[in-house]
Amino acid sequence: MNLFVVFALVGLVAGKPHSHKGNGNRPSSEGVVTNNYPTCGVATFENLISHYIVGGQQAVPNSWPWQVLLRKGTSSLTCGGSLVVGRDGTLKVVTAAHCTAGSRASQWTVVLGAHHLTSTHTTNTHWFQTTVSAIIQHANYNSNTLNNDVSIMILAQQPPVKPEIQPVCLAKTTYTAGEACWVTGWGTTTSGGSISPTLQEVQKNLVSVATCRAAYGQADITDGMLCGGEAGIDACQGDSGGPLVCKRGSSYELVGIVSWGYGCGFEGYPGVYANVHYYNSWLSANL
């Protein structure tokens, strides 16, 4: 079976990606201005969901204020990420380990408040760009199985406090099959297609672990993974590391990190995500 990792620079690959070694050292936040974010997971605008990503639509600009655009080198899009608040009160980025594996912090640029990929701070007043001072990659990330596919990026500079740039909450509880969630990103709208110039969104239902294991194989879906989507609705290349969020009460929680799948929205093969609730202890210790 040919699998792909939804990573803009990887595209379609045969099997899972070969091994890389990342930076697992915990960095210092010295010199970073601390911001206070008493709330999290508050969407800026009400989203009008229909059935791009694959099978969705263009998002209302800045309606998902935790959405992060990650660029490695000169790439316009490498991966996505989610803005979260750390224990020290500073904003940090949660993304996929397969995005950061084998890379250096100095290679990355983080863009917040983005909607159009070609925008800059002169054309988008909400646009904020910074470099990465350090990467904390899960020490047990496995590039063959894509287990433990989670990394944290430490921002070199903190953004201004504004409604268009806000953190998402981390999932506090487990989520069950059938719950409606949302995935966002600038990835391709068809498998192997072109990336989207604007942020896309799609609503998708979570799928049970049993159903997902029946599709991919018992050993391929670990406890650190969850699945969601249906035929024609999915994340795709370039969406890697981005958020899968579900709403609890008035707030959105980060439930999954876009990881891998078979094709994009192929019937019988839901998208696979790193299970954020499963990694709560690791995230709490490293954020």
UniProtKB/TrEMBL annotation:
Coiled coil: none
Transmembrane stretches, start-end: none
One MF term in the entry's GO annotations: serine-type endopeptidase activity
Keywords: Disulfide bond, Hydrolase, Protease, Serine protease, Signal
Ranges where the Peptidase S1 domain occurs: 53-287
Gene3D superfamilies per record: Trypsin-like serine proteases
Entries under InterPro entries matching the protein: Peptidase_S1_PA, Peptidase_S1_PA_chymotrypsin, Peptidase_S1A, Trypsin_dom, TRYPSIN_HIS, TRYPSIN_SER
Database matches in PROSITE patterns: TRYPSIN_DOM, TRYPSIN_HIS, TRYPSIN_SER
UniProt entry tagged with the keyword Transit peptide: no
SUPFAM superfamilies xrefs: Trypsin-like serine proteases (SSF50494)
Pfam families, per the entry: Trypsin
Keyword Metal-binding: no
The protein's name in its UniProt record: Trypsin-like protein
